[in-house]
TrEMBL record:
GO terms for cellular component: nucleoid. This is Single-stranded DNA-binding protein. The keyword Cell inner membrane does not apply. One of its GO terms (molecular function) is single-stranded DNA binding. It comes from the Bacteria. One of its GO terms (biological process) is DNA replication. Homotetramer. It comes from Flavobacterium segetis.
Length: 107
């Protein structure tokens, strides 16, 4: 089995892009995906999930140049988990998708 994630959704805010030493880029975005289903009684349920996405290098450059808040995109990457200690010493956990491909959809 392979760790592969594919998402199609709308970007929640303009990308956060950083230039690192050596000129390498890092982009962070959040993507909203929607699921619609109906309960047994016929009630419609709409559920939105937010996904944290990180991209490096050329993929980050594409995001920086073409992706804006509200844009519909497709991403492919891998699911990762990491942790860090915040300023108060509390351990925080993050799950994110590290994107290796971005496809621009819609207008």
């Amino acid at each position: 089995m392979k760790n592969t994630v594919q998402l199609i959704g709308h970007v929640g805010q303009d990308p956060e892009v950083k230039s690192l030493e050596g000129g390498k880029k890092l982009a962070n975005i959040s993507i909203a995906t929607n699921e619609v289903y109906y309960k047994e009684n016929g009630d419609k349920v709409e559920k939105t999930e937010w996904h944290r996405v990180t991209a490096w290098g050329k993929t980050a450059e594409i995001i920086e140049k073409y992706v804006t808040k509200g844009k519909e995109i497709a991403i492919e990457g891998k699911l990762t988990h990491r942790s860090y200690d915040d300023k108060d010493g509390v351990k925080r956990f993050i799950t994110e998708v590290v994107a290796n491909e971005v496809l621009l959809l819609g207008k």
